[in-house]
Each structure stands twice: as C-alpha cells, then as structure tokens.
Amino acid sequence: MTKHVQAVILDIDGTLINSNDAHARAWVDALSELGVEAPFADVRRCIGMGGDKLLPAIAGLAEDSALGKRVSKRRSELFKAQHLPHLQAFPQVRALLQKMRACGLALAVASSAKPEELEPFLALAQVQDLIEGKASSGDASSSKPDPDIVQAAITKLGFQPARIIMLGDTPYDIEAAARAGVRTIALRCGGRSDLDLAGALAIYDDPADLLAQFDSSVLRD
Length: 221
Known about the structure:
The protein is an alpha/beta fold.
C-alpha cells in the first residue's frame, strides 16, 4: 500500500466529467462523415486513449495522415458543437477535490484531451481553482496508455511517483500511471468493468462514493 500520499493526478473524461459516450459518438460521426464506418461499441472501448492511439486501433489510420488530420479536426468540431454544451460533471466532484486539498494533497490533471478542451472541462466541473498542474495531449508525444501525460503531470507536481495516486476510469489510466511509477484508484462511472480496472489499488463507483469512503481510503493514510 502506498503511504504518505502527497498528491493526486486526476483524469477528467469519465472520472470527473460524464463524457465518455459523447467522445465516442463524436469519433463515430466524424469517421462516418469521412467514409469510415466504425461501430460505437468498438470506439467506446478505446475512449481514454488519444487520437494517436484510437485512430490506428479503430480505422488503421495514422493521426498525422491527411485523412487522420481531417477526422481529428471534424471530431473536435462535432464534440464542441453537439456534445460539450450538454455534458455534466459527476456528483460531488468539487466536494471530493476540496476534501483532497483540505487533507494537504496537491492536485494535477492528466488528460488525453487536446489543450483547448481542458479548460472547458475544468470549468464544467467547477474545479479550476483547485488544480495546481495541468497536463494534456499538448504535453506528450504519445497518449495513454503510454506514460507521457502522467509523467508530465508528475513533473508539474514535483513529487516522487511513489507519493502520488492517479484517479482514473480506464485500464489506459492504470497502465499509463503504472509505467510512470504511480498507483491508481479507479472509478466505475466511466463505464468499465471491475475486470478492466483490476490493476487499481481500489475501485469506487464514482467521485461521490470515493468522497463517502475517503477516510478509509489510501488517500487518508
């Protein structure tokens, strides 16, 4: 068990914001518009990766190819116009982060989202004032499950990986954190099974569940 935790690295999509289905739909629709059919269920399982991983896995496309760039651009447009206005944070997100801060934990986010998407997400969750470091796809050459984004967040926090816990909702969060030397607490609210999240230290339903059990969690060691 990790002791003397000093900081938490937070995923956003599916962890703080109920957005995984919206991301999957935007990818499916963008691909379809450009002549590539991809089943929603297949795309949904890849949410948590960035486009550099998702496009090759789903469509055999390199993100930096001509078509890959068009798909990525269209996905961003569709997500911003059709989905972002309807997204909501999970219940008790701000209260959970306030509890973490009250316990002396430093907070950073590590998301595969594009940099321009990060601020709207933090505003939606009403946690901008609680976050000390931000790492997004713009800080990494490769997205989760590669460790780049988590390592960028570690650098921004300035603590040893053994003193940090990752809070995420996908196996990609768990793998990326582990490859950076960080343990993970997982949440089910992103839609993944306990089997998918088996590498986590502990699994909770959602931010509200973690908040309710906070005093018995590894975050209160």
